[in-house]
Amino acid sequence: MIKDILQQFNITAKHSGVSTGAHWLSGTGSVLSSVSPVDGQHIADVQSPGRDEFDAVVAAAGQAFHEWRQWPAPKRGEVVRQIGEALRTHKTALGKLVSYEMGKSLQEGYGEVQEMIDICDFAVGLSRQLYGLSMHSERPGHRMYEQWHPLGITGIISAFNFPVAVWSWNSMLAWVCGNVCIWKPSEKTPVTALVCQHIVQSVFAANQVPEGVCCLVAGGREVGEWLANDTRIPLISATGSTRMGKAVSSAVGARLGRALLELGGNNAIIISESADLDMALIGCVFGAVGTAGQRCTSTRRLIIHESVYDAFTQKLVNAYKQLRIGNPLDENNHVGPLIDKDAVSLYQASLQQVTAQGGHFLVEGGVLDGAGFESGCYVKPAIAAVQNHYNIVQHETFAPLLYVMKYKNLQEAIDMQNGVPQGLSSAIMTLNLREAEHFLSAAGSDCGIANVNIGTSGAEIGGAFGGEKETGGGRESGSDAWKNYMRRQTNTINYSNRLPLAQGISFDL
Fold first, then answer.
1. pLDDT of residue 192
2. Which of the following is catalytic: 262, 435, 470, 476?
């Protein structure tokens, strides 16, 4: 099945990972070997760029920007609309490949491609709504307004857990804004990026889009460092760990560039004594085990009112007993594998730290082996009773490890929710209006996303996505996130026959 998909997009066993949008270049860098965590089978080798190929891609992108920025925004939007149509055509094939290369469930693979389609639709509408404000001048016979212009090259560094969707959040908006893009996908999921590149290149070719608008540089850390340090690239949008984000921010900041960062999360759900516990259970379980706990919005902590703690944790334990772990392309399974054996090792180390720091398990974890688990990447979702201040709880574990803890009153729960370095997603389960409104107030959650009666995991593309503190402060996707990809210009026009100065200053000659 996967071989048929690769053949459909002309992906060979060893394929270049370097493209200027119209031509594939022969890279001279290292080779990325894509191996599926589903069954441990080799998918393809992807050739990374050397420094010369990287510079050629950046030069092509820079040249293309001069032409692309002059295309009317609605015309750019029409090209993005056609990308959305192409993704609809290839949704099944690309969704299966996402599931197989990354390890998420098939439904989540399809859902990720649907996110790409949705952001295309959003960007098409946005192409006619790149509004600026008009202001009244204090000087007679003057008009003031602001407008937004494209920045230039947008460098996109994406993570393995959403190998295609987050790239599309950035690229579709950047393109309708008049920017060109250079994408460095995760070195763990390069093949899905190749397919996306082939799809977009065919659409661009049909519309005579200049070469260099959509570029690909599949490579490892070195390629990311080249992007971050390159003064020709005014904006770097990076998704990944907090450690990686700090390195990117430091490099981009040193050259006074812009960094849009979407980093780690340590997301909590508060379970109020006024919660609908059955409804809360659904959000908590999916948030904790969906994508095998490898979402930045995955639910890591449950802060449960002491009066319902025993009842709710028993519901959790019973629900975990029903989870089916196995091949994610089998839609009967709930939980697939972790991305690779390094992730498994980190998971095992976290389990050990829970016990060492004083926690105990309500549901034991462990690595699965035997038939169907030959890749060595399948683990058991675990639940641990802990205290919020434990060192292991303060860090993000990218695996299905859920922490539970008690609280006495709402302010204590909010303080616990906020009492971690990360600030991405948060939620409260309550039928009490006062609790809900307090949670959403300035004195409530300090996260970029705060939900009531839904979980922490997942987001609609219409809202701006991102978080605070060590999550990086970036915003992508909906609302006015498009402004990240543009520069603001304030314009003043004097249509009078005099030249009065601002603030009433007189300068007579």
1. 98
2. 262
- Could you tell me which residues come within 8 angstroms of residue 184 by beta carbon, excluding any fewer than 6 positions away? 155, 156, 157, 158, 217, 218, 219, 223, 224, 227
The mean per-residue pLDDT over the stretch 65-82 comes to 98
Domains of the chain: 1-263+472-490 (3.40.605.10), 267-452 (3.40.309.10)
- Euclidean distance between CA atoms 429 and 455, whole angstroms: 8
CA distance to 20, 162, 316, 354, 472, per residue, from 313 (Å):
53, 30, 5, 18, 32
Q: What is the mean pLDDT of the chain?
A: 97
**Residue 53 annotated as catalytic:** no
- pLDDT at position 450, please? 98
Token representation of residue 111: 């859902």
Give 476's strand partners.
Answer: 465
Contacts of 504 (CB under 8 A, 6+ apart): none
* Cα 154 to Cα 485: distance, rounded to the nearest angstrom: 8
Distance CA 33, CA 200 (A): 23
Determine contact, residues 242/264, Cβ cutoff 8 Å: yes
- What is the pLDDT, as a whole number, of residue 204? 98
Global pTM reads 0.96
Token pair 């050629």 is found at 56
pLDDT digits (tens, 9 = 90+) for 223-247: 999 999 999 999 999 999 999 999 9
Find, among 190, 377, 362, 171, the residue nearest to 294 by Cα. Answer: 377
Question: CA-to-CA distance for 263 and 240, rounded, in angstroms?
Answer: 5
Residue 501, pLDDT score: 84
